[in-house]
Amino acid sequence: MQIQIRGEKVEITNAMKKQVNEKLAKLDKYFENPEEIKCYILVRIRELQQIIEVTVPTKKFTLRAEESHTDFYAAVDLVIDKLERQIRKNKTRLNRKYKNVEPIEINLELDTEDDEDDDVKIVKRKNMTMKPMDEEEALLQCELLNHDFFVFKNVDEECVSVMYKRKDGNYGIINVK
Questions:
Q1: Tell me: the pLDDT tens digits for 97-124?
Q2: How confident is the model at residue 30 (pLDDT cuts 50, 70, 90)?
Q3: Residues 65-74: pLDDT tens digits?
């Protein structure tokens, strides 16, 4: 696994890198070609807490986990355990769901008008590749990413859909036709 680790308000030492590499090696057994998988790790400090955020994008899905602890090494153990639970929990669902479908490229751009009274501005723009999927698969991705919403190409409705988490814990879908 190719690991890219960076620190925000913290210097990443060789011991920290070694610990992360050793722990992430446990996940190699779940991937067909682990040497092709890239893993992005962000280490942050908030007060006394060490926050570890791990993102593993693959061709079929994206794994994401975040944990915090006062001890860096304990936080690494917690986040690796969380990723491993996600993989094991969803392994059969993932294998069953992913078919040989071609991803489509979509660029979401927002139209904005300049208002003198408005200080709000776009600070980040993200381009993403969208794979056609059904609502169950989108729900799985939303849960794996631990996001409140997920944009996907809905194969059932033949449109772009936004799945969002409601305040009651259930999900809603907005279809854009």
A1: 554 445 545 454 544 444 444 567 888 8
A2: confident
A3: 999 999 999 9
Topology annotation, domain 2-97: Double Stranded RNA Binding Domain (3.30.160)
CA distances, 62 to each of 17, 43, 110, 138 (Å): 22, 19, 25, 12
Nearest-CA neighbor of 64 among 161, 148, 168? Answer: 148
Secondary structure (3-state) at 48: coil
Question: Taking the CB of residue 161, how many other CB atoms lie within 10 A of it?
Answer: 21
> For residues 111 and 26, what is the distance between their CA atoms, to the nearest angstrom?
45
Residues 6+ apart with CB under 8 A from 53: 41, 42, 43, 44, 64, 65, 66, 79
What is the rounded CA–CA span in Å between residue 39 and residue 26? 13
pLDDT the model gives residue 122: 81
* Domain range 104-176, its CATH number among 3.40.50.1860, 3.30.10.20, 3.30.505.50, 3.30.450.40: 3.30.505.50
Q: According to DSSP H, which parts of the chain are helical?
A: 14-24, 72-97, 135-145
Strands 49-57 and 171-176: unpaired
